[in-house]
Amino acid sequence: MTEKRRRFSAQFRAEAVQLVVQSDRTVTEVARDLGVERKTLNKWVSEFRRAQVGAQGGAREPAGPVERVRVEEMEAEIRRLRMENEFLKKAAAFFARTSR
Whole-structure pTM over 0.85, yes or no? Predict the structure, then answer.
Protein backbone atom coordinates (compact mmCIF):
# COMPACT_ATOMS: atom_id res chain seq x y z
CA MET A 1 0.00 0.00 0.00
CA THR A 2 1.35 3.42 -0.90
CA GLU A 3 1.65 6.15 1.66
CA LYS A 4 0.13 9.54 1.00
CA ARG A 5 2.80 12.22 0.82
CA ARG A 6 2.63 14.69 3.71
CA ARG A 7 2.78 18.42 3.00
CA PHE A 8 4.13 20.85 5.57
CA SER A 9 3.35 24.56 5.62
CA ALA A 10 6.12 27.12 5.39
CA GLN A 11 5.29 28.20 8.94
CA PHE A 12 5.69 24.64 10.27
CA ARG A 13 9.00 24.23 8.44
CA ALA A 14 10.28 27.55 9.77
CA GLU A 15 9.35 26.69 13.34
CA ALA A 16 10.95 23.26 13.05
CA VAL A 17 14.17 24.79 11.73
CA GLN A 18 14.06 27.37 14.51
CA LEU A 19 13.87 24.57 17.10
CA VAL A 20 17.10 23.11 15.72
CA VAL A 21 18.98 26.35 15.07
CA GLN A 22 18.15 28.21 18.27
CA SER A 23 18.38 25.35 20.74
CA ASP A 24 20.90 22.74 21.79
CA ARG A 25 18.69 19.91 20.48
CA THR A 26 19.80 17.76 17.58
CA VAL A 27 18.00 17.35 14.27
CA THR A 28 17.17 13.77 15.23
CA GLU A 29 15.54 14.80 18.53
CA VAL A 30 13.44 17.55 16.96
CA ALA A 31 12.41 15.34 14.04
CA ARG A 32 11.30 12.58 16.39
CA ASP A 33 9.30 15.03 18.55
CA LEU A 34 7.57 16.57 15.53
CA GLY A 35 6.95 13.30 13.70
CA VAL A 36 9.05 14.33 10.70
CA GLU A 37 11.70 12.28 8.95
CA ARG A 38 15.21 13.19 10.07
CA LYS A 39 16.38 13.55 6.47
CA THR A 40 13.54 15.96 5.71
CA LEU A 41 14.25 18.20 8.69
CA ASN A 42 17.97 18.08 7.95
CA LYS A 43 17.22 19.27 4.39
CA TRP A 44 15.15 22.19 5.71
CA VAL A 45 17.95 23.20 8.10
CA SER A 46 20.54 22.97 5.31
CA GLU A 47 18.40 25.14 3.01
CA PHE A 48 18.01 27.71 5.77
CA ARG A 49 21.74 27.82 6.48
CA ARG A 50 22.56 28.15 2.76
CA ALA A 51 20.09 31.04 2.51
CA GLN A 52 21.74 32.70 5.52
CA VAL A 53 25.22 32.38 3.99
CA GLY A 54 23.96 33.73 0.64
CA ALA A 55 22.36 36.71 2.35
CA GLN A 56 25.54 37.70 4.17
CA GLY A 57 26.77 39.76 1.23
CA GLY A 58 23.47 41.52 0.53
CA ALA A 59 20.76 43.24 2.52
CA ARG A 60 20.08 42.23 6.09
CA GLU A 61 18.27 38.89 6.29
CA PRO A 62 15.60 38.41 8.99
CA ALA A 63 16.93 36.90 12.21
CA GLY A 64 15.29 33.48 12.00
CA PRO A 65 13.27 31.19 9.79
CA VAL A 66 9.94 32.36 11.20
CA GLU A 67 10.79 35.97 10.44
CA ARG A 68 11.97 35.00 6.95
CA VAL A 69 8.65 33.27 6.22
CA ARG A 70 6.79 36.30 7.52
CA VAL A 71 8.80 38.63 5.27
CA GLU A 72 8.10 36.39 2.26
CA GLU A 73 4.37 36.47 3.05
CA MET A 74 4.45 40.27 3.36
CA GLU A 75 6.30 40.61 0.05
CA ALA A 76 3.66 38.46 -1.64
CA GLU A 77 0.94 40.64 -0.11
CA ILE A 78 2.68 43.79 -1.37
CA ARG A 79 2.87 42.34 -4.90
CA ARG A 80 -0.84 41.48 -4.80
CA LEU A 81 -1.80 44.94 -3.52
CA ARG A 82 0.29 46.65 -6.20
CA MET A 83 -1.45 44.62 -8.90
CA GLU A 84 -4.86 45.53 -7.46
CA ASN A 85 -3.83 49.18 -7.27
CA GLU A 86 -2.76 49.20 -10.95
CA PHE A 87 -6.05 47.58 -11.93
CA LEU A 88 -8.03 50.20 -10.00
CA LYS A 89 -6.06 53.02 -11.65
CA LYS A 90 -6.86 51.61 -15.09
CA ALA A 91 -10.53 51.11 -14.18
CA ALA A 92 -10.79 54.69 -12.87
CA ALA A 93 -9.21 56.03 -16.06
CA PHE A 94 -11.59 53.96 -18.19
CA PHE A 95 -14.69 55.14 -16.35
CA ALA A 96 -13.46 58.73 -16.41
CA ARG A 97 -13.20 58.53 -20.22
CA THR A 98 -16.58 56.83 -20.74
CA SER A 99 -18.56 59.07 -18.39
CA ARG A 100 -17.91 62.25 -20.43
Answer: no
